[in-house]
Design brief:
The protein is of the alpha/beta class and 336 residues long. The chain folds into two domains: 136 residues, 3-Layer(aba) Sandwich (Rossmann fold), CATH 3.40.50.720; 179 residues, NAD(P)-binding Rossmann-like Domain (Rossmann fold). The chain is 33% helix and 14% strand. Helix 1 links the parallel strand 1 and strand 2. Helix 1 runs parallel beside helix 11, helix 5 crosses helix 7 and helix 5 packs antiparallel against helix 11. The longest helix is centred in the middle third of the chain and has 20 residues. The chain is elongated, with a radius of gyration of 23 Å. The N terminus is likely disordered.
Length: 336
């Protein structure tokens, strides 16, 4: 740990320094330290609580996953703080006391949306081809003629539940494939969907009328347990459900019950609740479930994009240019 007595104008704030190393890496950390011409220490909440570090001149905080939740008194110690640049996605957990104190918050949520959308696109296209059911059926050459073939991609019906940044990117990526796209989101007007050639649907119709349903609901109290038995039972024959959003939106025991009854359905789950599933969960053994370990979001070489977004945003902010990735208190009501 470097000496923090020089009243830094910018700091890194994370509970786990290895997360900072993972996202920013040595090259970007050194670039920022050169930019702010100071020590730019790496601090955690315990060091803030000790109270022996002068935070009065800190104008900018750079962070990523493991950004600590600070209370109002801790936030007020940052007398000169102007902005937080968060090289990760959701800021729901920590942003409110800063916003209430007039600090502007910027997040790389759009950068993190890109790999999730790419991952979702791949699963949608494979689902339309019937790939996941086909590979279950195709156990040897003698069974080749009895394997399932999906309807294909062209003019197939796909629904996205929630239309935040990730789902918008999925809709954009789907444009060349000419699917019939439906959106479930009570907060948008159908006119917003015209550029995507999509239509609004109810949650019930999305499950009962589409061959692929992909969950992108924000992680809010109002969305917990929103999807359950009745939705999965209504799915068309051989349909697929994709979840790269959050597991808590799904009444998981009810979903499992339906998947046990209907072997024709496929569930592609990158998130669960709890995560990982309990050790005795049927999700590990059900043949029509594909589990992945929350890999849809930024991983490995993809995480550097989030740091680059925030470093560029900081330059725009300091130059007085329009921000691209700012998060407001109003946005927290509906975003992930």
């Amino acid at each position: 740990m470097k000496d923090c007595s020089a009243q830094p104008t910018a700091i890194f704030l994370v509970e786990m320094p290895d997360q900072l190393d993972y996202v920013y890496g040595d090259r970007r950390i050194e670039m920022l330290r050169e930019r702010y011409a100071g020590d730019m220490p790496i601090l955690n909440s315990q060091e803030l609580e000790n109270g022996d570090i002068d935070l009065s001149q800190v104008q900018y905080i750079f962070s990523t996953w493991s950004m600590p939740e600070l209370n109002q008194a801790q936030v007020e110690r940052f007398e000169a703080l102007e902005a937080i640049f968060y090289a990760a996605g959701s800021v729901q957990r920590f942003a409110r006391p800063f916003l209430e104190n007039g600090v502007r918050v910027f997040s790389a949520w759009q950068a993190n949306a890109i790999p999730v959308a790419e991952f979702t696109l791949a699963q949608i296209l494979l689902s339309c081809k019937g790939y996941f059911r086909n590979t279950r059926d195709y156990v040897d050459g003698q069974h080749r003629e009895n394997t399932y073939f999906g309807p294909g991609i062209y003019e197939n019906k796909v629904a996205l539940i929630g239309f935040g940044m990730i789902a918008q990117k999925v809709a954009e990526l789907l444009q060349p494939f000419q699917v019939e796209l439906s959106i479930v989101d009570p907060f948008i007007d159908e006119a917003c969907l015209e550029p995507y050639g999509a239509k609004l649907q109810s949650l019930e119709d999305a499950f009962s009328q589409n061959y692929v349903i992909s969950n992108h609901l924000p992680n809010l109290p109002a969305t917990v347990g929103l999807v359950g038995r009745e939705h999965f039972l209504s799915m068309p024959d051989h349909a697929s459900f994709i979840n790269t959003g959050r597991g808590a939106q799904i009444r998981e025991d009810e979903m499992i019950e339906v998947l046990q009854q209907r072997s024709d359905l496929t569930a592609l789950l990158d998130v669960t609740y709890p995560e990982p599933p309990d050790i005795d969960s049927p999700l590990y053994t059900l043949p029509n479930v594909q589990l992945s370990t929350h890999i849809a979001g930024s991983i490995n070489n993809e995480v550097g994009r989030m740091a680059d977004y925030m470093m560029a945003e900081a330059l725009r902010f300091q130059a007085g240019e329009p921000a691209l990735y700012e998060v407001s208190m109003e946005m927290l009501k509906t975003m992930a």
